[in-house]
């Protein structure tokens, strides 16, 4: 993976984490155990610190950055969807930020909350635990049900398993020119579709 020491500060990646080879880590970045960092993610710890706590996942093309002296933190089992941007904020334990959402400086997404896809969370925003946050600018729409929280948790567990699978089975290769006769299938997901769990 492209990994860069900056001003004498070197990124830290737990040996139990998976960081895709195309993700970029710069400076004060700490990736904890069991984390998954997807392809083309950018973690720029050249101003402030970036922390992914145990079991968090950061999916494809996500960007994390912050102002000088800030800490951008994804707490345990945090789940950040494809293309999201986090800047100087805190994502609580077991919370989720949906695809292409933006969460700005000093915003605090509370534990077990979900930020809906494409939402824009303004600087300084705070919500209560287990909130559904949505819109541009984002507001608390309602409290999440136990079923919705369980759905999120199941998805996060699947990414934790994916981190292990990628450490064991991902390998760079050349593409085939044509489909092989006995093409293997990918392992079936253990996660039930939304609304069935």
UniProtKB/TrEMBL annotation:
Enzyme Commission code: 3.1.2.-
Any Pfam family matching the protein: Hexapep
CDD domains, alphabetized: LbH_paaY_like (cd04745)
InterPro entries: Hexapep, PaaY, Transf_Hexapept/Carb_Anhydrase
A Gene Ontology molecular function term of the record: hydrolase activity
UniProtKB keywords: Hydrolase
Domain of life the protein comes from: Bacteria
Protein name: Phenylacetic acid degradation protein PaaY
Organism encoding this protein: Geopseudomonas aromaticivorans
């Amino acid at each position: 993976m492209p990994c860069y020491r900056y001003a004498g500060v070197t990124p830290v990646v737990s040996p139990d984490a998976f960081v895709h080879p195309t993700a970029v880590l710069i400076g004060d970045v700490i990736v904890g155990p069991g984390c998954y960092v997807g392809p083309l993610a950018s973690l720029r710890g050249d101003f402030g610190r970036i922390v992914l706590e145990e079991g968090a996942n950061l999916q494809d093309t996500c960007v994390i950055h912050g102002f000088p002296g800030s800490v951008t933190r994804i707490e345990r089992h945090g789940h950040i969807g494809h293309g999201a941007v986090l800047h100087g904020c805190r994502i609580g334990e077991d919370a989720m930020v949906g695809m292409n959402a933006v969460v700005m400086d000093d915003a605090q997404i509370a534990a077990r909350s979900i930020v809906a896809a494409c939402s824009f969370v303004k600087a300084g925003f705070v919500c209560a635990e287990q909130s559904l946050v949505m819109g541009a600018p984002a507001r608390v729409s309602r409290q999440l049900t136990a079923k919705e929280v369980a759905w999120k948790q199941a998805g996060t567990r699947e990414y934790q398993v994916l981190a292990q699978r990628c450490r064991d089975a991902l390998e760079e290769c050349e593409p085939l020119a044509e489909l092989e006769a006995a093409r293997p299938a990918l392992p079936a997901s253990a996660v039930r579709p939304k609304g069935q769990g």
